[in-house]
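Our collaborator T.R. sent over the components below with a one-line note: 'Predict the complex.' Nothing else. No constraints on interfaces, no templates requested, no preferences about which chain binds where. So this is a plain run: every listed entity goes in together, and whatever single assembly comes back becomes the starting point for the next discussion.
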Amino acid sequence: MIARLIEGVPRRALILLGLLLVALLAAPLLVGDYGLSVLILVLYFAYTGQAWNVMMGFAGQLSLGHSLYVGLAAYTAAALYVHFGIGPWLGVWIAIVISMAAGLVIGFLAFRFGIGGVYFALLTIAFAEFTRVGFDHFTWVNGSGGFFLPVAQYSVNDALNLRGSPTMFYYILLAITALAFVFCRWLLTGRIGYYWLAIREEPEAAQTLGINVFRYKMIAVAISAGMTALSGVFFAFYYNNLFPEQIFSMNRSIELILGPIIGGVGSLFGPILGAFVLTALAEVLNDVMVALGYELPGIKLVFYGLCLLAVVMYLPNGIWPPLRKWLGLGERL
Amino acid sequence: MSTAPLLTVAGISKSFRGLRAVDQASLTVPQGGIVSLIGPNGAGKTTCFNMIAGVFRPDEGSISFAGKNIGGLRPDQICHAGIGRTFQIVKPFKDLTALENVIVGALRTERSTRAAKKKAEGVLDQLGMLDKRDQPAGQLTLPERKRLEVARALATDPKLLLLDEVMAGLRPTETDQMVTVFRELNRKQGLTILLIEHVMRAVMALSQHVVVLHHGQVIADGAPEQVVRDPSVLECYLGEEADI
Amino acid sequence: MPADLILTVAVQGILTGLVYGLMALGLSVIFGVVRVVNFAHGEMMTIASYAAIVAFGAWNIDPLVSMIPIAVLLFALGYAMQAVLINPFINRPEHSQFILLAAVAIIMVNGLLMIFGPDARNVLVDYALDSIEVGPLLIDKVRVITAALALVIAALLFAFFKLSRTGKAIRACADNHLGALVVGLNVKRLYALTFGIGSACVGAAGAMMTLLIDTTPNVGPAFTLQAFVIVIIGGLGSMPGALLGGVLIGLTEAMAGLFFAPSAKTMFGVAILILVLLFRPQGLLGRRV
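Returned assembly:
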């Protein structure tokens, strides 16, 4: 299995990945509290972007409602913890099942009835909105008033209940992100990866080659939703507060997909690079505005919008593919 | 030629918005045979193909393959039944390399990607495309893409191959190369072929049997030399450019 | 609950729905011809609304008057967007077009947020609270006026597409892109015109909307979704469908607000959308593809 993972990957690429991993492992010792919180944000977007990329980048199904899976999972795990004392390591499985089920329902409705492309994207938004309004009135989790987890003492790390210091969260998230990277590489080099790419490129031809297009699209949605669920659970336990207005919003969905789009849709490293680039740009922008003593609501998102516009116009495949070529690294990375 | 037919199409019809594209067409393809489906543009050839390949469900009539009724199955089920096809307008997986394109097909029968890769290399070699294996399919020339399309279909191990105008746009020498490839596949591996073709050079060289479709109806059916002399066939081609 | 009240709310909902319909009509026209889904539709409407608010605040111009220059302004905006941004994207994959327009939408919402801040604004004309008595019903005057205007504009648009030379050329373009190119139509210009016309609809709707609801920058995405819901229900590309969808959504929202919570109204619209997608994916008045 490991042979399949690294087959055709140039040694240089492996070394670079190893160095990156070492740097990320050592980072908490070097960057301080604020730097760590930024890195957590980077990894959060990298991981979630990776999850979204399975659906769009691999199988070619554009979802603009991934906040649905984040939100459902976050609320599930948080409610189980607060109401029943069920810890996140158990709750996460239930959260994954619920998010997957939501994804499968949407996928079934769309793919069975031949809803593709733009219509599918709109359907994903519609479901996220539907759920957002639903949660606004869902009193069991305090509706639009927000749902809160008891905040932990930072001095004790209770990894079993995901209560503890940012450093603990950082390492857990790093492990998840690294595993997701390997998992996606594994998917992409296997039968399922070939089938997804075929469906993304030419669904009709794919079906002619014996691929059950409906089934493989459903699998893509399920895996993507399930992976995204994990980031929802993380979000709930890291930030300790959930508002339907925020977690299910369309803006959140768009924020989640900016990384992979800027990094490179369909590539493995694109979502990670995209998350780094975007977060770094946002930080620089923040610093500049603080230095100028000047703060306007919305300016950060205007800037995001302009970046997105520039990338989609001038680098239609994202930053990573040209960079990958320039570095002489393997094609499927 | 006297063996039982591999494919039997009996009286299939298909209408689009009231227009009868195929009207009670029947044809048979014997096991190990090469049959051409010809006719002027708009005669319903591709519609016929699409019904056999499972893209459209016939309004009436039946299609049986290797003794089983396959009418109304989905394209992927048709593939698993043992029918491979190419598209008139080629549909390569553009971002994938030539080899990866063929691997997708080979995965129908192979269990591991490693085995599929090996098989795909064999098929590419057979079609003289091994040197293009690492090129993205989007960068191949049209004749290469056509061959890739054939390779991809062949990799699924079909018993019957449906070829939709694979010779169109090829130069005469390239056409002859393709004809040789198909002849060899037919002779050595016993592959049965049903092809739609405008290039009469290929039709005459390859087929043992020709079916002529006009306005959705079969107007002639027989040996190639016999069919091209059929007055009704000549009439329907009058004014059409028959590429002889 | 008294029948009069229910009927009043229903009529008000239908009237509001006609303005929604006008907004969605813009989206439908654009999609029907250019085959691009304008993901910044609601945001463009919000720009029009703020233009009307500014015109009223600064020069005391009634939105029913300022809607004409605003429609022209939005026409120019739409024309420019198509000519500069979208035309190069016509042959790009759908998700690229989507992301392009999503980026434009993000810039618009947050640009408005930077300029006007997050607070809700509205236009209070002196007849804002007037109502018209129809039998036992009391109907808001502004709703009657805006609905009537929406119908007039829609009728003008129908006439334009049926009768004028340019309108016919645009329809030819929509039916057969390649054919239009072959007979020498300047397809890119016609696309830009169409995007402009669709934007003008949304401009007029946006100006009128200031009389009906409060405007914040954040209503943009909500109205984009609303417009999608309406045109999919009515049938993407169908002009009468957009109006019908608008009326249906207006009515549903009004009823949901009356019988449930006003904040839950979008849920019902989306529920109808899901039902339509399931049982009649081409929309109520759409053609089966």
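Summary for T.R.: Chain A touches chain B through 22 residues (CB under 8 Å).
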